[in-house]
Automatic annotation (TrEMBL):
Coiled coil: none annotated. Residues 62-220 form the Oxidoreductase molybdopterin-binding domain. GO terms for molecular function: heme binding; molybdenum ion binding; molybdopterin cofactor binding; sulfite oxidase activity. It comes from Mollisia scopiformis (Conifer needle endophyte fungus). Residues 243-335 form the Moybdenum cofactor oxidoreductase dimerisation domain. Keywords: Metal-binding, Molybdenum, Oxidoreductase. One of its GO terms (cellular component) is mitochondrion. The keyword Metal-binding applies. One of its GO terms (biological process) is sulfur compound metabolic process. This is Molybdopterin binding oxidoreductase. Its cofactor is Mo-molybdopterin. The keyword Calcium does not apply. InterPro entries: Ig_E-set (IPR014756), MoCF_OxRdtse_dimer (IPR005066), Mopterin_OxRdtase_euk (IPR008335), OxRdtase_Mopterin-bd_dom (IPR000572), OxRdtase_Mopterin-bd_sf (IPR036374).
Length: 350
């Protein structure tokens, strides 16, 4: 453990939060980010841990596995609690899903950061646990608490807390995951268990999860009220909506931005993704004046989708633009939004 560990004794724990005693401290303490490699390096369908972006808001929980448990309470007929070993007795499920970071909630949502990967998660469907707990009809949201705590963006809180509408929480793909890419979920990735909500932004996937609470309203913590909400215009009205499902997005893997090519024949390809899947990717060779359809592979579960387009370029400088459209008809904007199109500039030297 590093010298940066923040002792748990500095963090007051109430008796009703006794499951939080499994947190022995934080390491790293405070905000941590590891950016992904540039798009041209993300060539594999499954993203290895070493290439997957990494974001920790308030610190990485150090977990005592002997005392670790997950409590299920709130508006349920049968409150539950179980250890990691007991969780693993439930039938498991493996889901391949893209995993995307929304980006900093402290900045306007106008920059596409392409913090994205494609991961295999293994765990227990949350639906199985909720069915055992038997939620009451008035339970509309599922709150999830992580063992981490501290300060972010000038706000201090005793826990990272998010929520899901019960309809999403009861869907077949949402997991309490304890493996990533076939290996036990590491502590820095939110292990021993984190919530996984495929198709939704990573901020909703609570790490070091220790409590699941069924409630009638949304959670009131800063990560649902102050952070990770957007202003959405609908007709003449503006409304605040949570950052939940992922908008259509794409990135060009080949050619790399800044590449110097020795051939005129270029196989353009990349990845595209959205909550409901991508049905079309268009490529522009003239800075968005005209677009041509690329070939796109079908989605596997909640995975990202590979697109490709063959083109011949004369010698000189060129740019490529890729634009994705989702099943619902939503299309990537050219600029001004966090999911704006990706442009790659390159030179043909032949």
């Amino acid at each position: 453990m590093s010298a940066g560990i923040e002792a748990i004794k500095q963090h007051e724990i109430k008796d009703e939060d006794r499951e939080r005693k499994a947190c022995l401290g934080l390491d790293p303490a405070g905000f941590y980010i590891r950016h992904p490699p540039p798009p041209h390096e993300l060539t594999s369908f499954i993203t290895p841990d070493s290439q997957l972006f990494h974001t920790i808001h308030m610190g990485g929980a150090i977990v005592d596995l002997d005392s670790y448990k997950i409590v299920v309470d709130g508006l349920v007929k049968n409150p539950l609690q179980f250890s990691l070993l007991e969780l693993k007795q439930f039938p498991s499920k493996t889901i391949t899903a893209f995993h995307e970071c929304y980006g900093s909630p402290l900045n306007p949502p106008t920059t596409n950061v392409w913090r994205i990967g494609n991961v295999k998660w293994t765990g227990v469907p949350l639906k199985c646990i909720l069915e055992l707990a038997q939620p009451f009809p008035e339970a509309k949201f599922v709150w999830s608490d992580g063992l981490d705590y501290g300060s972010f963006g000038g706000v201090t809180t005793d826990r990272y807390q998010k929520d899901l509408p019960i309809e999403k929480a009861m869907s077949d793909e949402v997991l309490l995951a304890y493996e990533m890419n076939g290996s036990p979920l590491s502590r820095k990735r939110g292990g021993p268990v984190r919530l996984i909500a495929p198709g939704w932004f990573g901020t909703n996937m609570t790490k070091w999860i220790c409590r699941i609470s069924l409630q009638a309203e949304r959670a009131g913590g800063p990560f649902t009220t102050k952070f990770y909400n957007e202003v959405h215009s609908s007709g003449n009205r503006e409304e605040i909506r949570p950052v939940w499902d992922v908008e259509p997005n794409s990135m060009i893997v080949n050619p790399a931005d800044g590449a110097k090519l020795q051939t005129n024949e270029v196989e353009v390809w990349g990845w595209a993704w959205s909550a409901d899947g991508i049905v079309e990717v268009e490529v522009s060779l003239d800075e968005g004046t005209t677009f041509s359809n690329a070939e796109i592979e079908a989605r596997k579960e909640f995975s990202w989708q590979r697109f490709q387009y063959s083109a011949t370029f004369p010698s000189g400088s060129h740019s490529l633009m890729a634009r994705a459209t989702s099943t619902s008809g939503a299309q990537q904007p050219v600029s001004g939004r966090r999911n704006h199109v990706h442009i790659a500039h390159f030179t043909v030297e032949q």
